[in-house]
Every structure is written in C-alpha cells, then in structure tokens.
Structure prediction request, 157 residues.
Amino acid sequence: MSQFEQIIRVLQVEMNRPEMYGWFHMSWVVSAILAVLFLSLRKEKDHEKTLKRILFAYGVGSMLFELTKQIIWSYHYDAAERMGIWDYQWYAFPFQLCTTPIIISFVSVFLRKGSLRDCLLSYMAFITILGSTATAFYPEFCFVQTLMINMHTMYLH
Prediction:
C-alpha cells in the first residue's frame, strides 16, 4: 500500500454517526457562536483588509475540506485485491448550493469594493446563514459515519 493510500485510509476513519444535539453537533454550534462573537468584538482599523483575510481563510479551509471529501468519496481500497479503486462520485460534484460560497469567497478576495462584490457577499451571507441555520437546528441528514465528512459538513455550514 502506497503512502497516498495510507493517507486516504486515515482520512476515511469512521465514527459512530453523530446524534442530533449530541456532543459532536453541539461542539460545532458552540464553536461557530464563539467565532462569530470573537470576530464581531474585535476592533479593527482596516475593515477591508480584515474582510479579505476572513474570506481567504474561509475559502482555503473550505476548499481543503471539499477536496478531502471528494477524495474520500471517490477512492476505495480493495484489501482483497490489494489495490486502490478510483470511482468519482458525480453526485458530490462541488458546485452545489452549499459549496458556492467557497468559490465566491475566493472571487470576492480579488474584487474591489463595489456593487458586484456586495452582491456576491450578500448571496454568500444568505446561503451560509440558510445552510448553517438548517444544519444547526436539524442536521439529521447531514451526518454520516466518516469523521472527516462530518467535520466538512459542520465547517462548511
């Protein structure tokens, strides 16, 4: 087994499917609330620079989680044959409603302040708030038995 396959198997670590309002779910909800409080209470001199940093950090973190999800769902190791099988799962292609903020965050970093960027950020805020609120209150269909996928779900929403 190659190092790549070993890394993939580590990423595919399973867990008991998290329960709604269980420790896993609530720890992410509390973390999100603390992050919002921390960011809103900071006194920044340069709001534009801070916004771009936050958008970039969110975009990078989301993209890393999204790439990890794509690899986890597409790569399977067949122990009997001692070989890896790559079968891309097209239903998980990353241009769905919940993944559009990833693209918008990167685009918005490079746009100047103006109506186009304001529209994109408004869309991103609406979709992110909609997805996070829905996931915070009713995550039943978001959780699976793979740890990284559950972390991806909670981070992205």
